[in-house]
Amino acid sequence: MKILGEKIRHYRKLRGISQSELADGICTQATVSLIEKKDKIPSMEILVRICERLGITMNLVIVNDDSQIYSIISDIKKSFYFDDYQAIDDKLSKLSNININNKQEIKLIHFFNGLVEYELSGNYDKAIFDFNRAMNVNIANVDMYDILIDIYTAKAYVNKKSTDEAKVYFEQAKELIKASVEKISDENYHDSISIYANMSELSLNLGDSEKAAEYASEGIYIARKEQSLFKLDAMYCSLAEAGTREGKKADEDYIKAYVISSIIDNKNIFDKLKAKIKDMNLNIFKN
């Protein structure tokens, strides 16, 4: 069980009473302060009496572990969509003292632990260890994160210069995508685009320009259908790079990637393409 101290404070403020007034005859002012600022759980008797004084029911200010886990994992997924890996690490620490029994949640926690090792620490061996722990969670139904686990395992092996191992997980991801095309289309578009954007990048790293273009195009189609800029710059960048390697003219895709990266303030891609566009002597603003 977790108490939402900020909600106690919210309802106290609504009633216009101080911490001392709320505590009077129930507990100390210091106890109320700990509840509000540190989410300190008081005795059940104290909590019941505080809620009675505030005129609220306890379910408004407490959550059980299952609700708390669901909420934290939902927040972690949102941080993943924004590439905020430090926030993921911070949120994972909140789960360290909670007993988790749901296999899907266990799988996701292993995956996100691996992601933090991959993106923040550059510890690819530890990342692969965590990704494999996620794979070993026995769940009957395949979901989007099973594909992402294979993708990031392959990416970790690429960074370790272990191409043969990377190709094993790349092929697994390809097979899962092929078997899950309809499911991918029906999923949260952020998850679908994440899969295609990462597969396009991975395909380039493994020298498969044709697949890189195919995956980038699929992701771009979903992003445009959803009227979203999510990872659109990265996918146009991959599409342009794939086209260049195939000997095709890719100026337009490079320019699209550059412009979108400036709009969404993706400094990594913007700086990379700024130099490339200058070297290619491309005119961004044609008459």
Automatic annotation (TrEMBL):
Q: Where is the HTH cro/C1-type domain?
A: 8-61
Task: Tell me which InterPro entries the record gives.
Answer: Cro/C1-type_HTH, HTH-type_regulator_Rgg, Lambda_DNA-bd_dom_sf, TPR-like_helical_dom_sf, TPR_rpt
Q: Which SMART domains match?
A: HTH_XRE (SM00530)
PROSITE patterns for the chain: HTH_CROC1
The superkingdom of the source organism is Bacteria
- What is the designated name of this protein? Helix-turn-helix domain-containing protein
Annotated source species: Companilactobacillus keshanensis
